[in-house]
Amino acid sequence: AVLDLGYSFYYNISVTDLILERLPATLLLVISAQLLAITIGVVLGVIAARNPQGITSHFVTVLALVGYSAPVFWTGIMLIILFSSTLPIFPIGGLMDVSVEREGLAKMLDVLHHLVLPSITLASIFVALYSRLARASMLDVLGSDYVRTAKAKGLSEFLVVYKHALRNALLPVVTMAGLVFSGVISGAVLVETVFSWPGLGTLAVQAIVARDTPTILGILFFSSLVVVVANLLTDLVYRIIDPRIKTSDD
User: Fold this and answer.
1) 39 falls in which pLDDT band (50, 70, 90)?
2) Do the Cβ atoms of 143 and 57 come closer than 8 Å?
């Protein structure tokens, strides 16, 4: 049968059903963290590139390196202490509040409320990578002939940077986003464990402790499948950003 991965030794149910039940939570966390990391990283990179020798550029560099150096589980614990214990703004963990039944928009908002801290924690690792890459790419693009031509035509600094330069500067960032997607999934294991997020990460930890081999193999298979699809989507986005790239059918 298609996708028949056997039965879980620990849960005594189909591995495929077990994984498909947990997969949406992991995808929600991973995609949210990626989008957050890319957005913050690109914004910081552009700010740093506009004045590469200024205080802002050095501050962004130091901030990015601190975020990259901090262990993801430590970052998660610190956020829990600050925003869940000291300032009870966000819930400590879980996907939603199981003590209250919610439907529709209320349920979605509850999930988003629980998603904030885990997504920030997971994104913190990759903000440094994207910001440094965006800064270097933007500096390279700002020195191009067409950018100098745009400045000579009297266009404002905002239009030159965000309309003409940014689009080409995003190409290396998009490429890197596809390459590190497997690392995002790996980081999600720790983040899900810290925040009790009911995704593939917590399932993997439970399966390893229980020596549930079919479940572990199933998680590896589905994780690999997600990475392949993510790289395919990256290629499609790359083509949208850079119209010069054509497929064999064009």
Assistant:
1) very high
2) no
